[in-house]
Amino acid sequence: MANAKKAEGEHAVRRPRDAGTAAPASRAVAVPHAWLIALTVLLVLPWLVVAVLYLRSAEEPASPVASTVTASAEARATGPWGHLTATPIVVSPPLEYVAADWSRTDAPDTWYFPSTSADELEEFFVFVGLSREQARGLRSNARPDPRSRGLVVTPDDGLVRTMAPEVRARLYLQLAKSTLNFDQVNSFRFLGSSSEAWLGGSLISRETRQLVEPLIYSDGQFLHFADTELVRSQIADRAELQRLAKALLRQATVLVRLSVRDASEVEGLADYWGRGGRRLDLRPLLESVVGLDRSIDIVHLLPTFARENMYRYPRISTADLIEPQLANCLWTSLNFFRQEPDDRFRDINVALAVLRRDYYVVEHGFQLGDIVAFLDEEGDLYHVAVYLADGLVFTKNGMSPMAPWSIMTIDQVKGYYKARTEDPRLIYHRRNDF
Fold first, then answer.
1. Which end of the chain is more exposed for a tag (fewer CB within 10 A), N or C?
2. How far apart are CA 358 and CA 342, in angstroms?
3. What local confidence, expressed as pLDDT, does residue 207 receive?
4. pLDDT-based confidence at 126, cuts 50/70/90?
5. How far is it, in rounded angstroms, from Cα 349 to Cα 53?
6. Residue of 420, 404, 306 lying closest to 23 (CA atoms)
7. What gap in Å lies between CA 45 and CA 25, rounded to an integer?
8. Are 359 and 338 in contact, with CB atoms under 8 Å apart?
């Protein structure tokens, strides 16, 4: 496999960075004058980013709560995978999995600006849309931060509550460039265009929604919420905090169904969906719905691992708590065709070695089970997912137990990880034995 900056055909794997290590100042939230002329708006990273470099040297899950966003099913493009329709749904973790004390700290919100001078800080606040008076007030509040060679600001709660959504978006998306700004880096996010789609129909009270909704901001296809401490300070009921966390953790995905319109399609569909030695197992099911006004949820056509985990959340055992890594995107992708998951793939070095040794690169004609690697401009891998059909992938975004296994389009995955790059390089891998 080739590094984006190397000749095609090279196949070197770099040792991954420590996911818990703060980014160096050169990649943090510096506010240089050049940036003030051309703002690069980035999305935040997921709850826990799989910070691995590429091309360089659970037990049975519990069922989630799912709700249909709309009853309408959208027809997908027809291909060797057959005739598919996708219906939007929303999944959220079981309430039993959600802690009431889910926030990071009771300390007041702080904003870190590494490698930033006081003059640059003031101009930055004006640039994102605050008034000159507000910018000067924040500047006067700033204090030196030796570890980042910059400034740190503790904003007034009243200012944070009243910022316009577009100002909040510009400010927070820039703050998210530094791992020091924990709440912005790890913002809650939802694939959708309205707070009703995100919070509507959940169990939270009207009063809680009124606290949260003014603090929601958007970027591209995703809504974000990052002001956890501000809201927690206003909710005394622990049960309500637990319900709010469950609501904020909702994830949009789709149910995908396959129609078999004619008996002549069965052999081709069995070939496509039956990869991994499952062709004969699937053919009777495909034959059973030929020509009928029925369809099959493609979950029933997937290998055991994907079938048992789709739309679900990991069950974390005591043994998992002492592991250096929990289930992540690499572990998920490499276990796709396995009857039993191989936990050696939790080790990033092992996982990358297997991807390099047991897979080859394909450029077109993508098939079920191909692993899609997402690389940034530096050739670093930041996510992988499993190709299903028609641009749909099986994905686990991050290693948090509150991140479900779900189906998204490749473009949606790009948007989820937009903080890494707005134009990722995609490399598709196929198992050597297929």
1. C
2. 15
3. 95
4. very high
5. 10
6. 420
7. 17
8. no
